[in-house]
Amino acid sequence: VPSETMASRGAAAAAAERSAKPLRLDIQSLSKAFAGRTVVDDVTLSVAAGEVLCLLGPSGCGKSTTLRMIAGVETQDRGTIRLDGRVLSDGVTSVPPEGRSIGLMFQDFALFPHLSVTDNVAFGLKGRRAETHRRAHRLLERVGLAAHRDAFPHELSGGEQQRVALARAIAPKPRVMLMDEPFSGLDNRLRDGIRDDTLDVLREEGTAVLLVTHEPEEAMRMADEIALMRGGRIVQRGAPYNLYNSPHDKEAAAFFSDIN
Ligand code: ADP
Ligand code: MG
Protein backbone atom coordinates (compact mmCIF):
# COMPACT_ATOMS: atom_id res chain seq x y z
CA VAL A 1 0.00 0.00 0.00
CA PRO A 2 1.52 3.35 -1.02
CA SER A 3 2.16 5.58 1.96
CA GLU A 4 0.18 8.39 0.32
CA THR A 5 -2.97 6.30 0.46
CA MET A 6 -2.37 5.48 4.08
CA ALA A 7 -1.90 9.14 4.89
CA SER A 8 -5.08 10.19 3.11
CA ARG A 9 -7.00 7.39 4.81
CA GLY A 10 -5.79 8.70 8.13
CA ALA A 11 -6.85 12.22 7.21
CA ALA A 12 -10.28 11.03 6.09
CA ALA A 13 -10.77 9.11 9.32
CA ALA A 14 -9.74 12.16 11.32
CA ALA A 15 -12.13 14.36 9.34
CA ALA A 16 -14.96 11.88 9.90
CA GLU A 17 -14.22 11.86 13.61
CA ARG A 18 -14.29 15.64 13.75
CA SER A 19 -17.57 15.91 11.89
CA ALA A 20 -19.07 13.23 14.18
CA LYS A 21 -18.37 15.46 17.16
CA PRO A 22 -21.48 17.55 17.73
CA LEU A 23 -20.89 21.24 17.27
CA ARG A 24 -23.19 22.58 19.86
CA LEU A 25 -22.79 26.25 19.08
CA ASP A 26 -22.03 26.98 15.46
CA ILE A 27 -21.57 30.56 14.27
CA GLN A 28 -21.12 31.27 10.57
CA SER A 29 -19.98 34.60 9.11
CA LEU A 30 -21.48 36.83 11.76
CA SER A 31 -21.24 40.56 11.01
CA LYS A 32 -22.48 43.75 12.61
CA ALA A 33 -22.04 47.45 11.93
CA PHE A 34 -23.04 50.41 14.09
CA ALA A 35 -23.72 53.62 12.16
CA GLY A 36 -21.85 52.28 9.14
CA ARG A 37 -18.80 51.15 11.13
CA THR A 38 -18.23 47.39 11.10
CA VAL A 39 -17.45 46.15 14.61
CA VAL A 40 -17.93 42.39 14.05
CA ASP A 41 -16.62 41.27 10.71
CA ASP A 42 -17.33 37.82 9.30
CA VAL A 43 -16.82 35.90 12.54
CA THR A 44 -17.01 32.11 12.31
CA LEU A 45 -16.76 30.07 15.53
CA SER A 46 -17.88 26.77 16.97
CA VAL A 47 -17.91 25.21 20.42
CA ALA A 48 -18.60 21.56 21.21
CA ALA A 49 -20.36 20.26 24.33
CA GLY A 50 -18.15 20.38 27.41
CA GLU A 51 -15.56 22.59 25.74
CA VAL A 52 -14.34 26.08 26.51
CA LEU A 53 -13.62 28.47 23.67
CA CYS A 54 -12.05 31.79 24.69
CA LEU A 55 -12.70 34.81 22.55
CA LEU A 56 -9.60 36.83 23.35
CA GLY A 57 -8.81 40.34 22.21
CA PRO A 58 -8.18 43.93 23.28
CA SER A 59 -10.91 46.23 24.49
CA GLY A 60 -13.20 47.44 21.71
CA CYS A 61 -12.45 44.62 19.25
CA GLY A 62 -16.07 43.42 19.19
CA LYS A 63 -16.16 40.58 21.74
CA SER A 64 -19.21 41.71 23.70
CA THR A 65 -21.15 42.57 20.56
CA THR A 66 -20.48 39.04 19.30
CA LEU A 67 -21.80 37.54 22.54
CA ARG A 68 -24.83 39.80 22.54
CA MET A 69 -25.79 38.62 19.06
CA ILE A 70 -25.42 34.98 20.12
CA ALA A 71 -27.56 35.66 23.19
CA GLY A 72 -30.15 37.26 20.93
CA VAL A 73 -30.17 40.67 22.63
CA GLU A 74 -28.55 42.27 19.57
CA THR A 75 -29.43 41.55 15.94
CA GLN A 76 -26.79 40.64 13.39
CA ASP A 77 -26.51 42.21 9.95
CA ARG A 78 -25.32 38.94 8.43
CA GLY A 79 -24.55 35.41 9.45
CA THR A 80 -26.12 32.33 11.01
CA ILE A 81 -26.21 31.09 14.60
CA ARG A 82 -27.02 27.42 15.20
CA LEU A 83 -27.49 25.39 18.35
CA ASP A 84 -27.17 21.62 17.90
CA GLY A 85 -27.84 22.15 14.20
CA ARG A 86 -31.01 24.15 14.76
CA VAL A 87 -31.06 27.71 13.45
CA LEU A 88 -31.40 30.28 16.22
CA SER A 89 -30.94 33.22 13.94
CA ASP A 90 -30.16 33.64 10.24
CA GLY A 91 -31.73 36.90 9.14
CA VAL A 92 -35.04 35.14 8.42
CA THR A 93 -35.82 33.38 11.70
CA SER A 94 -34.78 34.61 15.10
CA VAL A 95 -35.47 32.68 18.28
CA PRO A 96 -36.01 35.15 21.17
CA PRO A 97 -33.33 35.20 23.90
CA GLU A 98 -35.42 33.23 26.39
CA GLY A 99 -35.93 30.42 23.89
CA ARG A 100 -32.24 29.92 23.07
CA SER A 101 -31.11 27.72 25.99
CA ILE A 102 -28.20 30.04 26.50
CA GLY A 103 -26.97 31.09 29.94
CA LEU A 104 -25.20 34.36 30.61
CA MET A 105 -22.61 35.46 33.13
CA PHE A 106 -21.34 39.00 33.08
CA GLN A 107 -19.02 40.88 35.40
CA ASP A 108 -21.79 43.21 36.52
CA PHE A 109 -24.62 40.74 36.23
CA ALA A 110 -26.08 41.72 39.57
CA LEU A 111 -28.02 39.43 41.87
CA PHE A 112 -31.45 40.57 43.02
CA PRO A 113 -30.63 42.39 46.27
CA HIS A 114 -34.05 41.85 47.84
CA LEU A 115 -34.06 38.07 47.25
CA SER A 116 -32.30 35.43 49.31
CA VAL A 117 -29.49 33.43 47.75
CA THR A 118 -31.86 30.50 47.26
CA ASP A 119 -34.51 32.68 45.63
CA ASN A 120 -31.90 34.23 43.35
CA VAL A 121 -30.89 30.79 42.09
CA ALA A 122 -34.49 29.54 41.81
CA PHE A 123 -35.69 32.73 40.11
CA GLY A 124 -35.75 31.51 36.51
CA LEU A 125 -36.97 27.99 37.27
CA LYS A 126 -40.44 26.78 36.50
CA GLY A 127 -42.28 24.48 38.86
CA ARG A 128 -43.48 24.34 42.42
CA ARG A 129 -41.58 26.34 44.97
CA ALA A 130 -40.55 23.25 46.95
CA GLU A 131 -39.04 21.73 43.81
CA THR A 132 -37.27 24.84 42.55
CA HIS A 133 -35.86 25.40 46.02
CA ARG A 134 -34.62 21.83 46.20
CA ARG A 135 -32.78 22.29 42.93
CA ALA A 136 -31.41 25.65 44.06
CA HIS A 137 -30.10 24.05 47.26
CA ARG A 138 -28.40 21.27 45.29
CA LEU A 139 -26.74 23.83 43.03
CA LEU A 140 -25.63 25.93 45.99
CA GLU A 141 -24.03 22.84 47.47
CA ARG A 142 -22.28 22.29 44.17
CA VAL A 143 -20.70 25.74 44.23
CA GLY A 144 -19.76 25.49 47.90
CA LEU A 145 -22.41 27.80 49.31
CA ALA A 146 -24.77 25.44 51.13
CA ALA A 147 -24.16 27.33 54.38
CA HIS A 148 -25.25 30.63 52.82
CA ARG A 149 -28.46 29.56 51.19
CA ASP A 150 -30.65 31.80 53.36
CA ALA A 151 -28.32 34.81 53.23
CA PHE A 152 -28.93 37.94 51.17
CA PRO A 153 -26.46 39.07 48.49
CA HIS A 154 -25.06 42.01 50.50
CA GLU A 155 -24.02 39.56 53.24
CA LEU A 156 -21.69 37.75 50.82
CA SER A 157 -18.21 38.54 49.51
CA GLY A 158 -17.67 39.33 45.83
CA GLY A 159 -16.42 35.82 45.19
CA GLU A 160 -19.41 34.26 46.93
CA GLN A 161 -21.77 36.46 44.95
CA GLN A 162 -20.08 35.27 41.78
CA ARG A 163 -20.67 31.66 42.83
CA VAL A 164 -24.36 32.46 43.35
CA ALA A 165 -24.41 34.01 39.87
CA LEU A 166 -22.90 30.78 38.52
CA ALA A 167 -25.51 28.64 40.29
CA ARG A 168 -28.25 30.91 38.96
CA ALA A 169 -26.87 30.78 35.42
CA ILE A 170 -26.68 26.97 35.32
CA ALA A 171 -30.00 26.37 37.12
CA PRO A 172 -32.12 26.19 33.92
CA LYS A 173 -29.53 23.77 32.41
CA PRO A 174 -28.53 25.89 29.43
CA ARG A 175 -26.80 24.11 26.55
CA VAL A 176 -24.40 27.02 26.12
CA MET A 177 -22.90 29.44 28.63
CA LEU A 178 -21.73 32.83 27.43
CA MET A 179 -19.36 34.53 29.84
CA ASP A 180 -18.27 38.13 29.35
CA GLU A 181 -15.24 38.82 31.57
CA PRO A 182 -17.10 37.43 34.58
CA PHE A 183 -13.99 37.21 36.75
CA SER A 184 -12.49 40.66 36.18
CA GLY A 185 -14.19 42.23 39.19
CA LEU A 186 -12.66 39.72 41.61
CA ASP A 187 -9.39 40.15 43.43
CA ASN A 188 -6.54 37.90 42.39
CA ARG A 189 -6.63 35.82 45.54
CA LEU A 190 -10.18 34.66 44.87
CA ARG A 191 -10.07 34.57 41.12
CA ASP A 192 -8.12 31.37 40.45
CA GLY A 193 -10.32 29.23 42.68
CA ILE A 194 -13.54 30.58 41.23
CA ARG A 195 -12.32 30.22 37.65
CA ASP A 196 -11.40 26.58 38.23
CA ASP A 197 -14.59 25.75 40.13
CA THR A 198 -16.73 27.42 37.48
CA LEU A 199 -15.16 25.38 34.71
CA ASP A 200 -15.43 22.17 36.73
CA VAL A 201 -19.16 22.71 37.16
CA LEU A 202 -19.73 23.61 33.50
CA ARG A 203 -17.69 20.67 32.20
CA GLU A 204 -19.59 18.28 34.45
CA GLU A 205 -22.84 19.60 33.01
CA GLY A 206 -21.51 19.21 29.47
CA THR A 207 -22.21 22.87 28.77
CA ALA A 208 -20.50 24.48 25.80
CA VAL A 209 -18.71 27.58 27.07
CA LEU A 210 -17.81 30.73 25.16
CA LEU A 211 -15.71 32.91 27.43
CA VAL A 212 -14.78 36.46 26.50
CA THR A 213 -11.65 38.00 27.97
CA HIS A 214 -9.04 40.64 27.16
CA GLU A 215 -6.48 38.88 29.38
CA PRO A 216 -4.23 36.39 27.59
CA GLU A 217 -3.32 34.81 30.91
CA GLU A 218 -6.99 34.03 31.64
CA ALA A 219 -7.45 32.54 28.17
CA MET A 220 -4.31 30.42 28.53
CA ARG A 221 -5.55 29.11 31.84
CA MET A 222 -9.14 28.37 30.94
CA ALA A 223 -9.47 27.65 27.23
CA ASP A 224 -9.48 24.40 25.30
CA GLU A 225 -9.23 26.63 22.29
CA ILE A 226 -8.57 30.35 21.79
CA ALA A 227 -9.97 32.55 19.03
CA LEU A 228 -7.87 35.71 18.84
CA MET A 229 -9.94 38.72 17.81
CA ARG A 230 -8.83 42.10 16.57
CA GLY A 231 -10.76 44.87 14.83
CA GLY A 232 -13.88 42.72 14.62
CA ARG A 233 -12.14 39.77 12.96
CA ILE A 234 -10.82 36.43 14.15
CA VAL A 235 -7.13 36.60 13.25
CA GLN A 236 -6.02 33.26 14.70
CA ARG A 237 -7.59 30.23 16.24
CA GLY A 238 -6.07 27.22 17.93
CA ALA A 239 -4.97 25.50 21.13
CA PRO A 240 -3.62 27.95 23.75
CA TYR A 241 -0.17 26.42 23.54
CA ASN A 242 -0.07 26.88 19.75
CA LEU A 243 -1.08 30.53 19.89
CA TYR A 244 1.44 31.21 22.61
CA ASN A 245 4.27 29.50 20.74
CA SER A 246 3.37 30.48 17.19
CA PRO A 247 1.52 33.78 17.31
CA HIS A 248 0.00 34.94 14.05
CA ASP A 249 2.02 38.20 13.86
CA LYS A 250 4.00 40.71 15.92
CA GLU A 251 0.91 42.20 17.49
CA ALA A 252 -0.31 38.80 18.65
CA ALA A 253 3.18 38.00 19.95
CA ALA A 254 3.27 41.25 21.93
CA PHE A 255 -0.16 40.48 23.35
CA PHE A 256 0.96 37.07 24.62
CA SER A 257 4.36 38.29 25.82
CA ASP A 258 2.73 40.03 28.79
CA ILE A 259 2.11 36.65 30.37
CA ASN A 260 4.73 35.85 32.96
P1 ADP B 1 -15.26 44.56 23.40
O1 ADP B 1 -16.26 43.79 24.16
O2 ADP B 1 -14.28 43.72 22.64
O3 ADP B 1 -14.55 45.56 24.27
P2 ADP B 1 -17.57 45.73 22.07
O4 ADP B 1 -18.22 44.64 21.32
O5 ADP B 1 -18.17 46.16 23.35
O6 ADP B 1 -16.01 45.40 22.25
O7 ADP B 1 -17.50 47.01 21.13
C1 ADP B 1 -16.95 46.98 19.83
C2 ADP B 1 -17.11 48.35 19.20
O8 ADP B 1 -18.47 48.59 18.93
C3 ADP B 1 -16.63 49.47 20.09
O9 ADP B 1 -16.01 50.43 19.30
C4 ADP B 1 -17.92 50.01 20.68
O10 ADP B 1 -17.80 51.37 20.98
C5 ADP B 1 -18.91 49.78 19.55
N1 ADP B 1 -20.29 49.56 20.04
C6 ADP B 1 -20.70 48.55 20.85
N2 ADP B 1 -22.02 48.63 21.07
C7 ADP B 1 -22.47 49.71 20.37
C8 ADP B 1 -23.76 50.33 20.19
N3 ADP B 1 -24.84 49.82 20.76
N4 ADP B 1 -23.80 51.41 19.40
C9 ADP B 1 -22.72 51.92 18.81
N5 ADP B 1 -21.48 51.40 18.94
C10 ADP B 1 -21.34 50.31 19.71
MG1 MG C 1 -16.67 43.82 26.22
Structural class designation: alpha/beta
Described by the principal axes of the CA atoms, the overall outline is: globular
Work out the radius of gyration.
20 Å
Bound molecules: adenosine-5'-diphosphate, magnesium ion
**What series of H and E elements makes up the topology?**
HEEEHEEEHHHEHEHEEHH
Helix content: 25-40%
Beta strands, count: 10
| Strand arrangement in the largest pleated sheet | 6-7-8-3-9-10
| N-end to C-end Cα span | 49 Å
The biggest sheet, with number of strands, parallel, antiparallel or mixed sense and barrel status, is:
6 strands, mixed
Mean pLDDT: 89
Molecular structure report:
A hairpin with a 2-residue loop joins strand 1 (23-34) and strand 2. Helix 5 packs parallel to helix 6. The chain contains 9 helices and 10 strands. It is globular. Residues 1-6 have low confidence and may be disordered. The chain is an alpha/beta fold and 260 residues long. The N and C termini lie far apart (49 Å). The longest helix has 18 residues, at 3-20. The strands form 2 sheets. A 6-stranded mixed sheet has the order 6-7-8-3-9-10, sandwiched between helices. The protein has a 4-stranded antiparallel sheet with strand order 2-1-4-5, covered by helices on one side. Magnesium ion (MG) is lined by residues 63-64, 180. Residues 25-256 form the ABC transporter domain. One of its GO terms (biological process) is quaternary ammonium group transport. Keywords: ATP-binding, Cell inner membrane, Cell membrane, Ion transport, Iron, Iron transport, Membrane, Nucleotide-binding, Translocase, Transport.
